[in-house]
Amino acid sequence: MQLPAGNASPSFPAQLSDWLALLESRHPKAIELGLDRVDTVRRRLDLAFGCPVITVGGTNGKGSTCAYLEAVLVDAGYRAGCYTSPHLLHYRERVRVAGEELPDALHVAAFAAVEAARGDVPLTYFEHGTLAAAWLFRRLEAEAVVLEVGLGGRLDAVNVFEPDCAVVTSVDLDHQEYLGDTREAIGREKAGIFRAGRPAVVTDPDPPDSLLTHARALGARLQRLGSEIILETGEGSWACRVGGRHYPALPPPALPGEFQLANAAAAVTALDGLRDRLPVTMQALRTGLARARPPGRFQVMPGPPMFILDVAHNPQAARALATNLARLTGGGRRLAVLGMLRDKDVAGVVRPLRTLVDAWFVAGLPGPRGLSGEALQTLLAADGIEVAGIHPDVPHALKAACATAGALDIITVFGSFYTVAAAVSVLEHGRIAAGKTV
User: Fold this and answer.
1) Looking at the predicted structure, is the pLDDT value of residue 254 above 90?
2) How many other β-carbons are positioned within 10 Å of the β-carbon of residue 300?
3) How many other CB atoms are found less than 10 A from the CB of residue 431?
4) Under the phi-then-psi rule, with left for phi > 0, alpha for psi from -120 to 50, and beta for the rest, what region is 46?
5) Are the CB atoms for 350 and 414 separated by under 8 Å?
């Protein structure tokens, strides 16, 4: 892939790490919903896509759906651009072209281009990064673009770009302080990514009326799971019917869980809606669905003991995690390492898992949004859960869990992207093993 040279001003940071530190410190609010500011800078940069754009929103499942779309498009031979958030270990995970992360120098050039264009317009970290990703996709001549909504939909920064197809995977309670306290309120926000006359794919099995009402009033081409989208499951394979078209003998998605069929069907339906502009072969569809595996979604790391990493941080995601854990067989104990942010529903996340966990190790998370281990223990105690250990951070909690674990035990690490990222950093360095820490 031919990479264009960037032209960073000497007054701008020269390193990606310095840019990220600057953006994290600059804006007084980490989240400030609204499109006016980001659209002003978008127009100054003349950022618009001449290729098909798929925007994916939803409370849960949007990252997996983006992974399926990206893998299928890349296997079909397209130079697909994919923008997702948040990242797990490093920022480069957020922006990929043709399935590849980009070198730091390109991100530096993109951030500088946005900075030069914004003038006195304030942008959040996410808004600056969204525009930088779009700049990169334009410069690298992406042939298709997949954009993951950061929060909500209607007022999210990615919504300044016109989608040719929009997907909403699920609607549940999360980020209520920004989106509302009911599924109806949240559904209306997520419906904001739909466009008149264009496919609006909905794979929530029980979508709120607000989502469907808005799609119909807008005149979007609504495609619902269980109506226009039909799943057919079989022994070792499944099929998807979209309207009058049949996609047979599809492999089980790379990610476990029945709900992943809905996410995979969302990807199939979105590609079906763009089949005239983005034709893909059945072979590309099958291989892409079979290999797409974003990290941190019921990610299994073999032991002993076995480690399961899951970024589940809201009740719906916790229920899905509980379903997957309940299907695991084995005679060992189930240990959990939990770290969460203070603006999350701790009780709602823990309750689906309480009967599946034999010992809880709670960890503090850093930053103003992070809950301390002590605060997390207090919340669990209020729900009748006794913890095995309170720890200042995830590495200490993980090592404590492992020190008490036997070879047949399973340690599940969940509650936040931050929790899983910290665990991966420990596990990938090989500094932990059953019954001891190194």
Assistant:
1) no
2) 14
3) 14
4) left
5) no
267 with 371, same domain? Answer: no
Please check whether residues 220 and 154 belong to one and the same domain: yes
CA 204 to chain CA centroid, nearest Å: 16
Give the domain extent around 391. Answer: 299-437
pLDDT digits (tens, 9 = 90+) for 115-164: 999 999 999 999 999 999 999 999 999 999 999 999 889 999 999 999 99
Asked if residue 309 and residue 202 are part of one domain, the reply reads: no
Which of these three, 237, 257, 291, is where a domain ends? 291
Q: How far is Cα 398 from Cα 405, in angstroms, rounded to an integer?
A: 10
Residues 269 and 313 in one domain: no
pLDDT at 31: 65
The CA distance from 304 to 306, in Å, is 5
pLDDT of 7 > 60? The answer is no
Residue 119 CA, chain-centre distance (Å), reads: 31
Q: CA–CA separation, 405 vs 424, rounded Å?
A: 18
| pLDDT at residue 56 tops 90 | yes
Give which of 189, 200, 204 is closest to 154, Cα–Cα. 189
CATH assignment at residue 144: 3.40.1190.10
Are 414 and 310 in contact by the 8 Å Cβ rule? The answer is yes
Contact 163, 191 (CB under 8 A): no
Please tell me the pTM assigned to this model: 0.92
User: Where is 133: in which H helix or E strand?
Assistant: helix 125-139
269 & 333 share domain: no
- Together in a domain, 304 and 396: yes
Report the distance separating Cα 298 and Cα 294, nearest Å: 10
Residue 202 shares a structural domain with residue 311: no
- CATH code at position 414: 3.90.190.20
Element (H, E) at 147: strand 144-148
